[in-house]
Design goal:
The complex is a heterodimer of chains A (about 160) and B (about 750).
Chain A: E1 2-6, E2 9-13, H1 21-28, E3 47-50, E4 53-56, E5 69-71, H2 73-76, H3 84-91, H4 101-114, H5 120-126, H6 137-156, H7 160-164
Parallel strand pairs in A: 1-5
Antiparallel strand pairs in A: 1-2, 3-4, 3-5
Helix pairs in contact in A: 3-6, 4-6
Chain B: H1 10-35, E1 62-65, E2 68-72, H2 82-94, E3 101-104, H3 122-149, E4 156-159, E5 162-165, E6 170-172, H4 173-176, H5 210-215, E7 230-235, E8 243-247, H6 250-253, E9 258-264, E10 267-272, H7 275-287, E11 289-292, H8 303-309, E12 313-318, E13 329-337, E14 349-355, E15 358-363, H9 368-379, E16 386-390, H10 402-415, E17 421-424, H11 427-433, E18 440-448, E19 454-463, H12 477-480, E20 513-520, H13 536-553, H14 558-564, H15 569-582, E21 593-601, E22 608-618, E23 623-634, H16 641-661, E24 690-696, H17 711-726, H18 737-743
Parallel strand pairs in B: 2-3, 7-17, 15-16, 19-20, 23-24
Antiparallel strand pairs in B: 1-2, 4-5, 5-6, 7-10, 8-11, 9-10, 12-20, 13-18, 14-15, 14-17, 18-19, 21-22, 22-23
Classes of the chains: A alpha+beta (about 160), B alpha+beta (about 750).
């Protein structure tokens, strides 16, 4: 029995520690965000955060996740309370089929977590690991830039509650 | 999305079935009428608009009842945004907010049969039908209100989901929408809203399918989890013709979680309680299998010779003189295109449940009705015992593994009934077994007259088939492997005017003489079928590359040379707009840089798209750096401008990936490009700096369909820009770094 912290909640799962994290997230925890794309670490559709680092959940044994924070798309935000990247992807309509999008958002989240002022080159290099087949790349980049800007302004401006004081 | 877990209410299911039966019989009556000669003095009967022709009953498309307004379509969401556009046209004509309309997409138990969602035809077929049905429904609601209020219809208007009278009386659609109000056949003509009064059409609307994709909802068939569901994996043969010689099943059956091993001839699958157990059991089963295989593939190094020598059927699709003497300025060229992948990011997936003598399959197929027929044939079940329900999958861009994996799931479910079976392919299975976009060869010879115009144009295209969709069971790949197999039928060419390998093979330009020949090759050593644009990708690449070669020979500007031969005013507008926005006439490329331009009217009867590109080639490495794309498009009346823009942007980037790097590889026996390292596609650092799309709206004009129109022009624009940047004309796709380096002689 393994104990996993996924999206801020503790879960007990009865699986072999060598099972790829992806299958545990999808089948045991019924989370849809991480997708199976290749099982080879070549496409990034399965990307999740381990602590604050983006990993391929299709290659990461679930045992590695014990004692660490695992975050999937579902852990970033909700439709009522979206995270800046989720909001930006909707604002930019940055999806066609959208199958890669969860991985794109998680990958970008890992970048923006430690750098809210990435250059265009840095964004493109960072996103290199993730494939999109519909050709939605230009919108994905625009969404990442937009989310970065949102995060920067949130970091420098007082929140509405603070402003009212 | 139509949630398959929802139990369709008996009333709804019955009324749905009833409506369909009635519509089919009426359809026959109408067709008979269309064939009957018109009575003297009577105008011939008008055909119904769009897909109403096949399914004329209004309540097959729109129902208004206690559950609100529901629209039904036989087309499917592929990430192209069709759901949103359909809601927009229905909302416009019904005068309600789009968010208040429910939408049910392709389901053989509930929706009209609109065949395949393919060929960029969903707007012409389904949106046209929904729009007319909505307009006619609105008028019927107004008539019902007129009766209720005992006032003339002229005093009533439809507004925000109700019919209202000037004196303040109102009746909601729900109050007016009795069971049989819309149970009538559509009329040929509708009172469509005029462009001047549009509130929803022509305005960008956020796609309704995106939130679930961004927040982790149930967005795909891959996300479907039915109670009691088990997971299956298929062990595919190592190569096309391989036969399963022997397999030791016992040890696999004893693996943890394994509940069944299914073997039927060379069809081999394993079922397990959990998904990863199925994956491990599949690996073990593959190791325990012995296959007989033999080399049957053509020599990859000489695939184009094979294509030109293979038995072919000749179709002269544009007759003209073939005996004109070459002029002083005659050119000829040959172009090549390899087999290319659809390459969906998510491998194909389906869920099937066999119970009570019937089968339901949840599928991302582009055509639930054809798939139902093929599966019924494969399982030897009556059609009405099979139901196919669409759910989205990963983008397909044509005929990928969607239908095959549905067949896999159906076969396994029949062998393991009463529990839903989910089958998902592995990456190597998707890469090796999907039907590829066909390899092609084109040859062209043309002569210029003294004035620098094209006087003679001789064009040939050699191509495999571009559609092997089901069809029958023989087009489902798993059915080839059964003990009682279904043979793959000999493919047939898709006739003009749309065409398959010869799609867009007839230039849209006006030449004094032109002759175009399609050489259709039925033999299919590598499995092929429809890939976005079909033959148009290659034909437009060839024609538009050659137009540049001829422009150079005529010492003319490439854009001016095209306009010289282009009469269609809408085509000219698109060419002019792209050139203007790109700054064609003012851009002087720096050393190592090149500009390219290309244009096509997709299928010669759909969207007009022009693409201009600027790029840079690093001389030492042959590395291409994409700088900017500027496109112009006319898709007729635009319903969702952002949807059109997204399709063109995506088409440009995808075609750039095909054109600069993609080719299926194979040896004498097996497909060898079985993952993303052996078949690389464009990654972020290789993207252009910008992609700009300019739209020409034609309010009131027919929808033209946008989904595939950028593929060909993008390829040719890249070829033309490479020629300008390097001084070398490249005619064999793809333009890899290695090939460019070799061409420029570094």
């Amino acid at each position: 029995m393994l104990t996993l912290n996924v999206n801020g909640r503790q879960h007990q799962v009865d699986v072999d520690a060598a099972t790829p994290l992806l299958y545990v997230l999808r089948d045991d925890l019924a989370l849809n965000g991480a997708k199976f794309g290749c099982g080879l670490g070549q496409c990034g559709a399965c990307t999740v955060l381990l602590d604050d680092k983006a990993v391929f959940s299709c290659l990461t044994p679930v045992g590695v996740g014990e004692g660490r924070r695992i975050t999937t798309l579902e852990g970033l935000g909700t439709e009522d309370n979206p995270n800046p990247l989720q909001r930006a992807f909707i604002d930019q309509q940055a999806a066609q089929c959208g199958f890669c999008i969860a991985g794109m958002i998680m990958r970008a989240q890992a970048l923006l977590h430690h750098n809210t002022q990435p250059t265009e080159k840095e964004i493109r290099e960072h996103m290199r690991t993730n494939l999109c087949r519909c050709g939605t790349h230009m919108r994905i980049l625009a969404a990442v830039r937009r989310a970065a800007a949102t995060m920067r302004s949130a970091a420098t401006e007082p929140s509405p509650r603070e402003a009212r004081r | 999305m139509s949630d398959p877990r929802e139990r369709v209410s008996r009333r709804r299911a019955l009324s749905g079935a009833g409506a369909l039966i009635v519509s089919f019989s009426l359809g026959r009556v109408l067709r008979a009428q269309e064939l009957a000669p018109a009575a003297p003095g009577q105008p011939p009967p008008q055909p119904l608009p769009g897909s109403l022709r096949a399914t004329p009953m209004l309540d097959a498309w729109i129902r208004i009842d206690g559950e609100g307004i529901t629209v039904f379509t036989g087309k499917v969401e592929l990430g192209q945004g069709i759901k949103t556009a359909l809601l927009q046209v229905a909302a416009e004509e019904l005068h309600v907010e789009p968010g208040l309309i429910g939408l049910i997409t392709a389901d053989t138990a509930r929706t009209p049969d609109e065949g395949y969602t393919a060929g960029s035809q969903s707007m012409q077929e389904s949106a046209t039908a929904v729009r007319h049905a909505a307009a006619q429904a609105r008028e019927l609601l107004i008539e019902a209100a007129a009766k209720r209020f005992a006032v003339p219809v002229e005093e009533l208007t439809a507004q925000d989901g109700a019919v209202i009278h000037g004196d303040g009386r109102r009746a909601s659609y729900r109050q007016l929408g009795s069971a049989d109000l819309l149970h009538v056949a559509a009329q040929p003509r509708s009172k469509l809203k005029g462009p001047g009064s549009y509130r929803v059409i022509g305005r960008p609307m956020p796609r309704v399918d995106i939130p679930a994709k961004v927040f982790g909802g149930v967005a795909y068939v891959q996300d479907l989890r039915l109670p009691g569901m088990v997971h299956a994996r298929v062990v595919r043969p190592p190569s096309y013709g391989a036969r399963l010689d022997s397999v030791e099943i016992g040890p696999v059956e004893r693996m943890p979680g394994v509940v069944k091993v299914v073997r039927d001839g060379s069809f081999l699958a394993v079922v397990a309680e959990r998904e990863y157990q199925a994956v491990k059991a599949m690996d073990a089963l593959a190791l325990a299998s012995q296959w007989n295989e033999s080399g049957s593939l053509p020599d990859a190094a000489h695939i184009y010779d094979w294509l030109r020598r293979a038995p072919s059927q000749e179709y002269i699709i544009r007759e003209g003189r073939s005996d004109l003497e070459p002029s002083a300025r005659s050119l000829q060229a040959v172009y090549h295109r390899p087999f290319q992948l659809h390459g969906s990011i998510g491998p194909s997936c389906a869920v099937a449940l066999a119970e009570a003598g019937g089968l339901t399959v949840w599928t991302h197929s582009q055509g639930v009705y054809p798939l139902r027929g093929a599966i019924a044939e494969m399982l030897r079940l009556p059609r009405d015992k099979v139901r196919a329900v669409h759910m989205e999958g990963s983008g397909c861009y044509g005929h990928n593994g969607a239908d095959d994996v549905a067949a896999d799931a159906a076969l396994v479910a029949m062998a393991f009934p009463d529990r839903p079976v989910r089958v998902q392919w592995m990456r190597d299975q998707e890469h090796a077994w999907e039907p590829f976009g066909a390899a092609m060869v084109t040859g062209v010879r043309a002569s210029l007259d003294d004035g620098g115009a094209i006087a003679d144009w001789q064009y040939e295209v050699w191509s495999n088939a571009h559609s092997t969709r089901p069809g029958g069971a023989g087009n489902l790949m798993p059915a080839w492997h059964l003990a009682a197999p279904f043979a793959q039928p000999v493919p047939q060419p898709i006739p003009q005017p749309t065409g398959g390998g010869d799609r867009n093979a007839i230039p849209i330009y006006r030449f004094a003489n032109m002759r175009v020949v399609h050489r259709f090759i039925p033999g299919m050593p590598l499995r092929v079928s429809a890939l976005r644009g079909l033959g148009a990708y290659m034909n437009v690449f060839s024609i538009e590359s050659f137009m540049d070669e001829l422009a150079k020979a005529a010492n003319a500007d490439q854009v001016e040379f095209r306009l010289r031969h282009l009469e269609d005013p809408r085509a000219r507008d698109v060419v002019e707009l792209a050139a203007e926005k790109f700054g064609w006439r003012s851009t002087v490329p720096a050393r190592g840089r090149g500009r390219g331009f290309a244009f096509a009217k997709y299928k010669n009867l759909a969207a007009y798209t022009a693409v201009a590109v600027e790029l840079e080639v690093e001389h030492e490495s042959g590395q291409v750096r994409l700088l900017r794309f500027v496109a112009a498009d006319d898709s007729g009346e635009i319903v969702n401008p952002d949807g059109v823009r997204n399709q063109i942007e995506g088409g440009i980037v995808q075609s750039a990936s095909w054109t600069l790097g993609e080719a299926v590889t194979f040896d004498a026996t097996r497909i060898t490009s079985r993952d993303w390292s052996a078949y690389p596609i464009l990654r972020f650092p290789e993207l252009p700096e910008s992609v700009e799309v300019h739209l020409i709206d034609r309010p009131g004009q027919p929808y033209l369909g946008t989904g595939e129109s950028a593929q060909g022009p993008t390829a040719a624009a890249l070829a033309n820009a490479l020629a300008e940047a390097t001084g070398v004309r490249m005619r064999e796709l793809p333009f890899t770094r290695r090939r460019i380096k070799a061409a420029i002689g570094v």
